[in-house]
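User: Can you model how oxa(dethia)-CoA sits in this protein?
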Amino acid sequence: MTAPPPSHPPPHRAAVLAGVGGCLPPTAVTNDELAQRLDSSDAWIRSRTGIRQRYFAPPGTATSDLAVGAGAEALKSSGTPDADAVLLATTTPDRPCPATAPVVAARLGLTGAAAFDVSAVCTGFVYALAAAAGLIAAGAAERVLVIGAETFSTLLDPDDRSTAVIFGDGAGAVVLRAGEAAEPGALGPFDLGSDGGREDLITVPAGGSRQRLSGVEAAPRDRYFAMDGKEVFRHAVRRMSASARAVLDRAGLRPDDVDHLVGHQANLRITNHVADEVGIPRERCFSNIAEVGNTAAASIPLALDQAHADGVLTAGGRVLLTAFGGGLTWGSTVLTWPRLDRA
Ligand code: UT7
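Assistant: Here's the modeled complex, given as structure tokens:
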């Protein structure tokens, strides 16, 4: 017996950007404030990373609180408060179980929507965009709210100057709707990858099933985020450059065709190296790391929200997104910026 021809999904459905939003905790923490308790200085932090300040969520503020703020703004900017799926990229969920996305969906009035977390550290948002585009292409969703949100400060060892000065908290979000590949705002192609052989380079060793906290006392440091900064720097430049080039090849584009490179805001020096490697002038790189630090899975959507608000991203500009993070993981995609309202 032959199977009936599939009537679903509708052919050639693309995910099209329809809204953008962001949310930061209320108080910025300057380099000088951190240098009062760490053996560091504003000059070192600025020159080695490009960071001037970051935001730390106060006690009582969870990742879902920031995610709801960004999600509400993105829905408002899309002109419609609906979504039938909510994907939350985060390294810092509210709790190990359940996922944070369903809680965020309910608080946004989206009870009933499919909702799940995506865990790929700083690449999480690009992975979540790809997953959302897949849901739309498969006909499983019409409108997807994709959020990157972190309270990364909750993982930081306050005495580790090599990480405590880099990371910050925040959330960014976009709304994707079903549309056509030729429309402005259509996402894709994608390039995604991982190398779990280097899991050691970015890790919180304890708290999962490998090094359990239940019944066993973990070494205090193992509860904190740890990173081999120098080695990660090298991988970040290599992987983001290769991934960005791969996605341009797949799209049939040249570096010259890119108006804006919005990379994961890991370190200004990393973004500049990636631009050089790919052949995109540094002045076409958008960076907000000076104001927000490295916000992990939130960094690309927060940068998109700020670049849109600042009038840097305008309708018709071609935007290349590239990210790298723990796992190791990496991913890139490309889109033409659509006409969007501000929330
Ligand atoms: O988002 C996911 C991925 N994360 C990243 O992509 C981050 C990648 N790595 C980096 O951004 C950089 O490697 C860091 C910003 C973490 C470090 O910068 P670096 O230029 O690679 O510095 P380094 O680790 O080579 O350290 C140079 C010196 C060392 O002192 P000695 O050994 O030369 O005496 C460090 O102990 O700087 C010292 N140092 C600091 N000094 C003042 C490290 N952190 C600090 C600090 N303040 N906060």
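A couple of observations from the model: Residues 40, 44-45, 48-49, 122, 161-162, 165-166, 229-230, 232-233, 236, 266-267, 270, 294, 325 surround oxa(dethia)-CoA (CB under 6 Å). The radius of gyration is 19 Å.
User: Helpful, thanks.
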